[in-house]
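Predict the 3D structure for this chain.
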Amino acid sequence: MRLTHTSRILLLTASGWAALSGAALAQTTPQTPVPEDTARLEDVIVTGTPFGVTDRASLLAVEVLGAEQLAVAPAATLGDLVNGLPGVRSSSFAPGASRPVIRGLSGPRVQVLTNGLGLIDASSVSPDHQVAVDPAEASRIEIVRGPSTLVFGGSAIGGVVNIIDERVPTTRAENGLDGHVSTQLSSIDNGRGGGASLKTNLGPLVFTIDGYTHQSEDYGISGPAMSQRLADALSVPRPWASTVVNSASAIDQLGAGLSWVGDAGYFGGSVKTTNSTYGTVAEPDVTIQLEQTRYDVRGEHTLGTPWFDKVRLGAAYADYTHTEFEGADTGTVFFSNGYEGRLELIQRPRNGWQGVIGGQLLNRDFDAAGAEAYVPRTTTREHGLYTVQRLDRDAWGIEGGIRFDSHRVDSPLVDLSFDNVSASAGLFVRPSGPLFLGLTIARNARAPSEVELFADGAHVATAAYEHGDPTFDSEVATSIEATMHYASGPLTADLHVYTAHYDGFIDLRPTGVDDVDSGLPIFDYVQTKADFRGFEAEASYDLWVDGDRSLTLSGTADMVRAQTDFGPAARIPPWSAGAQLAWSSRRVDAGVEVRHVGAQDRVTAFELPTDSYTMVNLTGALHPFADHNVTVFGELHNLTNVEAREHASFLKDIAPLPGRNLRVGVTYRF
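Done. Predicted structure below.
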């Protein structure tokens, strides 16, 4: 089908001279990362190490957003919520659709999970597809950077974002009734939203119910939507704009769960419905409606045998529909339904030895109907077996694991199978009490996605006609990562330095030829070699402490460089650095953050460079009552109203980040 004249002009303008050689775009509203100690001392990490390891003793690069941070977090999509944490950015395809970008990798290379299980949606198919989860439901979010995530298989070759909730209750309500109520407003998009959750005991049964809603209008910006670089490339003036058109969004979510909770463990189930509507920015007359119903079963039982301490079960089934409306008419519809399950045996700790043995299975059906159904119907089946082991002798230790995966993709064109082996080995030492040093070597393999294998058609979200290749082999990453943790007195610090070599890296490259029917430039998925290297650093220092009052200075920095056989990889975020001064007391918390994001001029042939920016943000929270049950919070984001663009976004040159924004809210926990 040939695009309408208006749609084609918009798409070509959006990508500028990049579109002339064949690129595309997308962008959203990143938020200030949740302030203060997101990786708290002695926080037990469960993502990637199911037997539990503290953050000060982990070889994985992990950030944790806990309940206190999430209580005052922006009502944002997942990618925007975690954007700005070390090594993490957002794919930013308007406020309605954004996935995390970890160490320059996104899409099928970054796995988004709920309680350790996949979302069973189609968010990795295209950057304009929303992640079928609202961060407001989380009691905790863990972000694991890098490929050493054997528990989750090849789809986590870039990292993992695990949203942990209590919808299936794992513990009893402390006082017979626990819960929270929250609401917040934002000025830049006339945003308003709120949510509530409740957990109560009914004898040995524990019942939960929760609901969340958020609506926003087109968000405001500090100047023209079009970047100066794109205007120069097109030799046109920058048209003034006060908002990013078609960036409004709305989401409603309702869930309930029931568990039997006893001394030896728990077993229960839950159901959740998600309904979301949002604009796509790239096409002013296109809106997307997402609907998903998800059922989960979770359980854990203490075995008490000589070898195994616990058995843990998780399973989920989801039915997902993504409908694209062109005005009032239904355009393309994407369907995804299936199930995923995981069974783990947690070994009994003995003499510093911990471990887990587990198995995972997945069955997912994907289909699309309409003019942009550029991927055929597919059925994906995965089976994985893994073990992760750790020996900790206090002064030193070792950690390692291995995983075997069988991955099968069936389509009307051809049936394909991939058998992959992934493994990792690490060594750590504690030369002194406060200092932890580690080194990890890993090999991780990822089967190609259905888009990379079978794409053949016009993809408006990327302004390209995409061609997959069913002859692809698995993508294999061999990585080395050095880790340092330090915590003594007022100073804490973390450093991760890594390099990763990809064999069979799957990249989308322009051919220089336009498709006759759609008029879009043709892009081919190709396999090449690639090298990623970089670092992430964090540090905080207590300048002054007196009882429950403290003044803390903290800082972060990160950088990633990525090179393929064709040149720099596409949409790699530039370096960034930030500093925050935070005051904490029993009644008042306040902070000021300055974050600088560097320019990115290491670009491919179909990208425009991105200018640097410096953003100033203010945060504050008031606890009016002694028990801290009520928190009144506020944030002034982008205080100086700078023009800022996220290089990892397809739409960076037509959709800058939001301008100055005042956000206020109240949370009550009981």
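Residues 14 and 654 are 6 Å apart (CA to CA).
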